[in-house]
Amino acid sequence: MGRSLARNSLRYRKFGSLDWESSVLGISTAALLFAEEDSQSLNPVETVKLIRYAIDQGLNYLDLGYPFDLNRQRHLACLVGEALQDGYLEKVKISLTLPSHLIQEEKDFEFYLKEQLTWLRIGKADFCLFGRLNRDNWPELQKAGALAWADDALGRGRVDNIGFSFHDHFQILRSILNSWNRWRLCQLQFSYMDVDHDPGISGIQYAAEQGLAVVAADPLKNGRLARVPPPSVAAILRQAGELETPAELGLRFVWNYIEVSTAVLDIRCRSEIEEAVRIAGRAEPNGLTIEEEILISRIREQYLKSKRIDCSSCRPCMPCPEGIDVPRIFEVYNDAFIYEDAETARTLYRSELHNIGRCTQCGICRDRCVKRLPILEWLDHARSLLQGD
Questions:
Q1: What is the CA radius of gyration of the chain?
Q2: Of residues 99, 27, 35, 88, the one with CA closest to residue 63
Q3: Buried b / exposed e across 337-355, counting CB within 10 Å, b at 16+?
Q4: Which one, of 187, 110, 183, 180, lies nearest residue 142 by Cα?
Q5: Which residues of the chain fall below pLDDT 50?
Q6: What is the rounded CA–CA span in Å between residue 384 and residue 389?
Q7: CA–CA separation, 64 vs 121, rounded Å?
Q8: pLDDT tens digits, residue range 79-138?
Q9: CATH for the 3-290 domain, from 3.40.50.2300, 3.20.20.100, 3.30.565.10, 3.10.450.50
């Protein structure tokens, strides 16, 4: 299917305050590495074909994801760069993310931008994001000169637009948005499981009100909302009668919000792209029926019954002196039980470079926890499941 034909089936939305429309379905290439123990095992020819196939369907926003591991990211970015040859670069806008966990001083921002541009064989970034901002790392990035660098990079034409990905509470999001008047996009984790979670519906609405494009990341929770659900959830689906596939419910929920410019799909195989493009043809704002909204609420409630740790990611326990992201680890651990999928949880744990083994049992996180959770005990449980020891 060529781009002109795809334009008739896909939907497009205005991208924040920019004079550009994004496809409601975007591309995330991160999962191509998450599924691989060894990035060298990626089939270069098939990977290039898969990326080009997605672009041929009209998907015009491509996100490389967060570069946790630079060696793996380099391998992937070089393959993306190959896929963008032969005229494909002109069909998409590229979003790069700077690794916040590696930045210590202002020169690091330019270094990690230059590295990724070189791997991709492009001269500038359409979108450059400060990655995974929260209340702990944003003050440190500001001290390192993030906004001064951003102003300079825009002025020199190194990037066209600056944004950030985010995973924290609404008040922190509002503070970041109010710290600078040149933000153009905000990437937030958003699915029907995230309506009240970091920063939830209020977050996407506030960002859109400020004129930012909102990019919904992980709309299907690493594919888990698209799979055959656990028996308890499947029973709800059977009771509801004739329904769409699980992926349709998940994607249409995200697109139900006009504030969402695009939802980035983790591409893994051609069949998943085909299904998502078909669903995208029905991407209407306010398109869910009352019955569908009730159904999704029941599904969400049923999933959350399997949550093990009552952690709300409020983050007083952070920062950890050993660099352990307790709230994120607990989220990954909970999701293993919520979706009955420990293997995806282990993959995320490894890919995000967590290491509970660094814990010294100092107890600072436990003492700061407003819910008085036995954090050290739960970290032991999480290590047993996620590290297998």
A1: 20
A2: 27
A3: bbbbbeebbbbbbbbbebe
A4: 180
A5: 1-8, 38-40
A6: 5
A7: 14
A8: 999 999 999 999 999 999 999 999 999 999 999 999 999 999 999 999 999 999 999 999
A9: 3.20.20.100
Would you state the pLDDT for residue 3?
36
Distances (CA, A) of 288 to 250, 257, 260: 11, 10, 15
Alpha-carbon span 351 to 190, nearest angstrom: 20
What six digits make up the tokens of 37? 């123990």
* 62-79 as b/e: b if 16+ CB within 10 A: bbbbbbbbeebbbbbbeb
- Is 39 in contact with 29 (CB distance < 8 Å)? no
- Alpha-carbon distance of 231 to 142, in angstroms, equals 47
The tokens of 185 are what? Answer: 């996009």
| Alpha-carbon gap, residue 304 to 193, rounded angstroms | 9
Burial of 112 (0-12, 13-18, 19+ CB in 10 A): buried
